From TrEMBL:
This is SnoaL-like domain-containing protein. InterPro entries: Cyclase_SnoaL-like, NTF2-like_dom_sf. One of its GO terms (biological process) is polyketide metabolic process. Gene3D superfamilies: 3.10.450.50. It comes from the Bacteria. Pfam families: SnoaL. It comes from Brumicola pallidula DSM 14239 = ACAM 615. PANTHER family: ESTER CYCLASE, POLYKETIDE CYCLASE SNOAL-LIKE DOMAIN.
C-alpha cells in the first residue's frame, strides 16, 4: 500500500501536480547543499529535477515507515534507499553508469491530509563512496549497504497497545539522558548496558559507518565524537514518532556542540560551534534497544568547520 510519501515522489517522477498532497506553504528541509525549499511551487520546480536528471529508473524503497501523532499533528518516520542507474553527474559527483543506492532518513509532518513540513537527510557522502571518489579518511565502522530490521516488520510495526509505544519512547528518552552523563574523561561514565542490547546494531552514515555491540560503538563512533564535541547538547526535536517497538526523533538542527578537540573523522579541531542535523530511528527488543538507524548531515557539519566536501571531492577525481 502506497503512503503519502510514495505518492509525493510518484508525482515528482511523473511531473504530476503536488497540490493535492502538499500544503501551499510547505517547508522542505534537505541535507546540504540543497537545504531549505519553501512552498509547493518551489518544491515542484526546484527539488527533484536534479535527481531525475542524474538517475534513471529512480525508485523509493523504504524498509521502515511508521506514523503517530505528536502535539496534535500526524508525523511519519521512515528510512531506506532510493535506487537508480547513475547516468549523469549529480551535485558534481561523476556518474558511474551503474546501479546506485541513495540512503535517506526522514520525518514528515501531515496536516489536513497534506505534507506541511518535511525533513530528509540523504547520505550524499555515501554517493561519493559508491562513485569511488570518497574525499575523507576511511570510515572506522563498516561502510556498506544498511540492513532493514532483523524482525523485517519495519513497514508494518505491530503495536499491542499504546502502552507498548509509550514504553519504547521512555526507554529512548532514558537512554538519551544517560548519554548526557558523560564526565569528559571516561566513556564508561555512560552506562549503555542498561539500555542497549549486547548485540546492538548502530547503522551510521558514511564517514562513520556501522558498528555492532557497545564496545565497537564506543571505539568507532562514540569516543571520537564525544571527545571532539565535549559540550554537545540535544536541544531541539521536531517530533517524537512511536509505534510498537519503534521510536524516531530528530530535528533541524537537533544538536549543538563546539568542535574543540580533534579526532572526529580524523579532522583537527576548529573551536567552532556547530549545529547538527540528525534523525534517529530505534527498534526495541524486550527491555533493551537492539537497532538504531542514524541519519547525520555530515557534509553540513564539515561546511561549518570550513571544509567544503564537494570541493575536496573534485581534487580526488
Amino acid at each position: 500500500m502506497s503512503s503519502i510519501i510514495d505518492n509525493f515522489y510518484n508525482c515528482l517522477q511523473t511531473d504530476k501536480s503536488l497540490n493535492a498532497i502538499v500544503a501551499e506553504d510547505a517547508v522542505l528541509n534537505v541535507s546540504y547543499p540543497i537545504n531549505q525549499i519553501v512552498g509547493v511551487k518551489a518544491i515542484q520546480s526546484d527539488y527533484w529535477l536534479q535527481f531525475k536528471s542524474a538517475f534513471e529508473h529512480l525508485e523509493r524503497k523504504a524498509f521502515i515507515e511508521f506514523d503517530s501523532d505528536y502535539e496534535s499533528d500526524q508525523w511519519i518516520a521512515a528510512t531506506g534507499y532510493f535506487s537508480g542507474i547513475f547516468v549523469n553527474d549529480f551535485l558534481g559527483i561523476p556518474a558511474t553508469g551503474n546501479l546506485l543506492y541513495l540512503r535517506f532518513t526522514e520525518l514528515v509532518k501531515i496536516n489536513n491530509n497534506k505534507i506541511s513540513e518535511y525533513f530528509i537527510i540523504f547520505d550524499f557522502l555515501d554517493v561519493m563512496h559508491q562513485a569511488g571518489i570518497y574525499p575523507l579518511r576511511k570510515s572506522l565502522g563498516h561502510c556498506g549497504q544498511i540492513l532493514p530490521p532483523t524482525t523485517m516488520d519495519g513497514l508494518s510495526p505491530v503495536e499491542v497497545n499504546e502502552l507498548q509505544a509509550d514504553g519504547s519512547e521512555q526507554l529512548v528518552l532514558n537512554m538519551l539522558e544517560e548519554l548526557s552523563k558523560f564526565d569528559g574523561k571516561s566513556l564508561l561514565s555512560m552506562q549503555l548496558e542498561n539500555y542497549w542490547h549486547p548485540d546492538f546494531m548502530w547503522y551510521g552514515p558514511a564517514g562513520i559507518g556501522t558498528t555492532k555491540g557497545i564496545k565497537s560503538f564506543r571505539e568507532r563512533h562514540q569516543g571520537p565524537f564525544v571527545f571532539s564535541f565535549p559540550d554537545r547538547l540535544v536541544d531541539h526535536k521536531a517530533c517524537v514518532v512511536k509505534k510498537g517497538n519503534y521510536v524516531a526523533t530528530g530535528g533541524w538542527p537537533h544538536m549543538h556542540g563546539t568542535h574543540s578537540v580533534g579526532g572526529w573523522l580524523g579532522l583537527p579541531p576548529t573551536n567552532k560551534t556547530l549545529e547538527l542535523r540528525v534523525i534517529d530511528i530505534w527498534r526495541r527488543e524486550g527491555d533493551l534497544l537492539k537497532e538504531n538507524w542514524v541519519g547525520i548531515d555530515i557534509i553540513h557539519m564539515c561546511k561549518q568547520m570550513g571544509l567544503d566536501i564537494f570541493a575536496l571531492m573534485k581534487t580526488s577525481v
